[in-house]
Amino acid sequence: MPGRHVSGRPGDEREDFVMGERADAIASLEGIARIEGRTRGKSGWYAAYLWVFAGWQLFLVPVVLLWHGRTGTLVGTVGNVAVVMGLSLFATRQPVVPRGHGGRHLRVIGTWAVAYVTSLLLGYFVFRDSTTFAAVAALACALPAAAAARREARSA
């Protein structure tokens, strides 16, 4: 019969087909594992991003709370714009975005925003010019990003 494999044993054609499918599946899984390995190696950028953001809070919060007047406002604003733009550019240039990144990032920034606004309100109206409060507020504002950075570093 035309198109029929003749090898002397019945079922050889089926075995060849199954072996070919297995080889294809193994090659696909190896490719996926290779991609996953490369991806994991490049996904640590978000932890670095968060550490920089946390470190920036240790400078920004005391400047905003303790340095009054136009110069303090200018230094805090220009510095913050530069850091946020730098971090944003850094983030957009990354080849890999971790799964669930958007939600995690919104939680980190949302928690930071609550800490930051609370710190500003307390620092301006209750603890005006208190260096101790400014130091504690800076740590409170750095904490959400630092905690998330630590989690990210452990999971990468």
Write up this protein.
The protein has 156 residues and is mostly helical. 81% of the residues lie in helices and 0% in strands. It has five helices and no strands. The chain has helices spanning 12-42, 45-66, 70-92, 101-125, 131-155. The chain is rod-shaped. The model has no long low-confidence stretch (mean pLDDT 85).
Please sum up the structure shown.
This protein has 156 residues and is mainly alpha-helical.
List the helices and strands and how they pair.
Elements: H1 12-42, H2 45-66, H3 70-92, H4 101-125, H5 131-155
Helix pairs in contact: 2-3, 2-5, 4-5
Give average pLDDT, whole number.
85
Helix content: over 70%
Report the end-to-end length measured between terminal Cα atoms: 58 Å
- Record field, number of beta strands: 0
Oligomer: single chain
Secondary-structure element order, N to C: HHHHH
Q: Could you list the spans in which at least 5 consecutive residues all have pLDDT below 50?
A: none
Counting DSSP H or I runs of 4 or more residues, the number of helices is 5
The Cα radius of gyration reads 27 Å
**In percent, how much strand structure appears in the residues?**
under 5%
Which key features would you list for this structure?
5 helices; mainly alpha; 81% helix; rod-shaped
